[in-house]
């Protein structure tokens, strides 16, 4: 009886202790989750490959044209190749002896006799198909990116001012636009930066006088070689098309804008028209591939494209909130970590990103990869492919 009388308080105490323990565990758990470094689903990409019927492509040639958002595309290729242990055809230094035409011997470790095989070729070069074919697999996917030559030349004027004789001679951009042929002499130092820059990067003669039948023939040949030509003005639509063609996941093509200037000179419509006329070959090229781009979008489906672009933007926003201190790019001097400071060149400030410090290590590594500038990433890949002392 005594025992029975004693039991309720003991049971009650036990129940109270149990409830308290559960509460403390839950409280500590949620509290620890809140204060522990942030993490996100790096290991489970948003689009599961298991439902895909296509085979992800890993033999890639990207012609990194200049001032066309190529660094943002390159970062994505670097990340993909790095994570999947693909082999890059790397330059000895940072570019393939640009502005010379590409040659297979410019690739670090390339040897005509033993012919090593590569997965990705993507650093700055002047395109030269026969030499590329010597080292890249025959099933490689070729793609490049173009930009309206008017805004491209505005960017180029600011960035390459000190290395192009035409730009150096012009007192300012307005003067250059008004009288380009006064400042420009074909063949003078660095003048490929000042006229038909994309035509030049494609390995063609940028000083050829404009002629429709020649331009048409060259552009058709480019169309035959390149499986996809992206447009920097429609970067997100470009990434969706690329993701589809490569059969990659959404996270593989999400990126933050790299290599942007702090400010640019706004151009009047009349100035844009003048620059397009000055860059007649590039304008012809751009108009042609603008048309093929939107034909591809039509085939992909407009509504589907809108949906995919929304998904891409949402994921970028989500990653930016997880990874970055500021949602807008910042000046290099605000970035304390040397490894992610953007390379500075030219008249304008090139912007970069500050990655949060209090992130879980895997998450932080992922975030750092997304903002690692081109030259630094090239060193990382180089060290991985050519370990010292091996
Ligand atoms: N995602 C995205 N969307 C649109 N535009 C973008 C993007 N990423 C980079 N950019 C712009 O591309 C310009 C830099 O191009 P590159 O990286 O090819 O330059 S470089 O040749 O490698 O120096 C540079 O243009 P300017 O700012 O006009 O110079 C960048 O702002």
From TrEMBL:
Q: Is Nuclease set as a keyword in this record? A: no
**Can you cite an annotated GO cellular component?**
Golgi membrane
Top-level taxon: Eukaryota
Q: Name one GO biological process term.
A: glycolipid biosynthetic process
Predominant cellular place of this UniProt entry's protein = Golgi
Keywords on this record? Glycoprotein, Golgi apparatus, Membrane, Signal-anchor, Transferase, Transmembrane, Transmembrane helix
- Which InterPro entries does the annotation name? Gal-3-0_sulfotransfrase (IPR009729), P-loop_NTPase (IPR027417)
Keyword hit for Cell division: no
What are the subcellular locations of this protein?
Answer: Golgi apparatus membrane
- One Pfam family of this protein, by short name? Gal-3-0_sulfotr
Molecular function terms, GO-annotated: galactose 3-O-sulfotransferase activity; galactosylceramide sulfotransferase activity
Instruction: Describe its membrane topology.
Output: Single-pass type II membrane protein
Family to which the UniProt record says this protein belongs: Belongs to the galactose-3-O-sulfotransferase family.
Q: Identify the PANTHER family for this entry.
A: GALACTOSE-3-O-SULFOTRANSFERASE, GALACTOSE-3-O-SULFOTRANSFERASE 2
**Protein's UniProt name:** Galactose-3-O-sulfotransferase 4
